[in-house]
Amino acid sequence: MLKLSALTDRLGLAGRALAVGGVVLVAGVAAAWLAAGTVRSAHGGGTVEKKEPDTVAKIRRDGTDQIVVPADVCASLGLKTVPATLPPATRNLPSFQGVLNFDNGRLVRVQSPFAGQVIEAGVATGQEPNSHVPSAFPSSNAGLRVGDKVTRGDVLAVVWSADLGAKKSEFVDAVSKLKTDEKTYRRLDELYQINGTAERTVREAERTVQADRVAVERAEATLRAWRVPADEIAALRESADQLSAPDAKRTDPAKWARVEVKAPISGVILEKNVAAGQVVDTTSDLFRIGDVSTLAVWVHLYEEDLPLICKLSLPREWAISAVASPGTAHTGKLERIGMAIDPAQHTALVTGTVENEKGDLRAGMAVTVTVKIPTSSDEIEVPAEAVVEDGRESSVFVRADSSGDRYVRRPVTVVRRSRDTIAIAARSGGLKPGDAVVTSGSLLLGSAFTDLPQPKP
């Protein structure tokens, strides 16, 4: 028997090529046999062929709108479902940015009703007012300061007004003269009844009394026009009654020139423009007081967001959160939508108020504004990841049975979107509250539904 090498030497080049080809052919046949999964084993003296079972589960389409997903494929895709729900009764519009300011309706500028010289400045709660005389002005404290709280009726400053003192003195003199002339008239009239005096004398006394009454009414009208309180006018009449007595002592008229400038509202002093010794007139703003228990909110709303607000009935409640104190919400009201659009920023001014009873908000603070609106009853809410978009329509996959391997694709109409949820029209796709919609793995399920062929009818 010849060796292989000797045989190839004898056959030459052609023989060697034929031998190599035979080896390759045998190897190819063996590989094909292994790939087919055929296994040969001795059993009962014979040879038996076995094929490995197909353990790969298949996902398939069923009808025009259903897809069947075996349990092991569901696990590998990570499919999860949650029930579709009705939206809450109210929802929040997208937040708007704004700024706080003082409410113009709660700001008061305080002036002196009479021109004169400031002889005393009011003091804050807990301080003692300084005693004064017209020629000496207090300097031991600065009186009221910006930021001090005042109550309605508190004395803010005292002005020495020579004009007011003169008018009060004129009124007292007129009342006193009237009373004296009335006594004279009554005495002359009694004498006239017993022929003790001439009628001409009585008539002149009567005309004098009438002139005195006119003078009193004119002086009183002037005081009322200058808004002198009624109790001060009554006190002046009492002083005049005392002066009519023979032994009466004249009241110090210097006090009549004293004018107390009082706070017209309760609030905080925002501005102070007066000091003791200063000469002021009726147009000078001595103080500016603001009621900061309620502040104004200004929101510059972009014109593309206006339709969201214009549909609302006003006033409407809104929630305010200050950037300086995140997590703390303050209630207020949206009251007015501006009628003009800023041509540079393309925004409209939306204004309202916010409650500030604790005083922790400040004018100028940046705030975030949230408005609640009622939700339509024809809506269903699903998680945002449940909606599959293919560029033409939106759809969700709903679990069709309790076994969890059959899902129905339902086209839906999106009403609005938010960060976490999407609202769907209740009549679209037959979706109902409580339907189990696929959330995790919905995109993979949508791709499989599109790629798999639809079964033939």
How would you describe the overall organization of this protein?
With 457 residues, the chain is α+β, with helices and mostly antiparallel strands. It has four domains: 4-50, no CATH class; 61-89 and 377-451, Beta Barrel (conserved putative lor/sdh protein from methanococcus maripaludis s2 fold); 92-104 and 291-374, Elongation Factor Tu (Ef-tu), domain 3, CATH 2.40.30; 112-284, no CATH class. Helices cover 28% and strands 31% of the residues. The protein contains eight helices and 27 strands. The strands form seven sheets. The chain has a six-stranded antiparallel barrel with strand order 7-16-19-18-17-20. It has a five-stranded antiparallel β-sheet with strand order 3-4-24-23-22, covered by helices on one side. A hairpin with a 5-residue loop joins β18 (329-341) and β19 (347-355). The longest helix has 32 residues, at 162-193. Residues 1-56 and 129-141 have low confidence and may be disordered. Residues 145-291 form the CzcB-like barrel-sandwich hybrid domain.
Summarize the structure.
The protein is α+β, with helices and mostly antiparallel strands.
Question: Which helices and strands occur, and which strands form pairs?
Answer:
Blueprint: H1 4-11, H2 13-35, E1 39-43, E2 46-50, E3 60-62, E4 66-68, H3 71-77, E5 81-83, E6 90-92, E7 96-101, E8 107-110, E9 116-121, E10 149-150, E11 155-160, H4 162-193, H5 199-225, H6 230-243, E12 258-262, E13 267-272, E14 279-280, E15 287-290, E16 294-302, H7 306-310, E17 316-322, E18 329-341, E19 347-355, E20 366-374, E21 379-383, E22 388-389, E23 394-399, E24 406-412, E25 414-417, E26 421-425, E27 436-438, H8 442-451
Antiparallel strand pairs: 1-2, 3-4, 4-24, 5-27, 6-20, 7-16, 7-20, 8-15, 9-11, 9-14, 10-13, 11-12, 13-15, 16-19, 17-18, 17-20, 18-19, 21-26, 22-23, 23-24, 25-26
Helix pairs in contact: 1-2, 4-5, 4-6
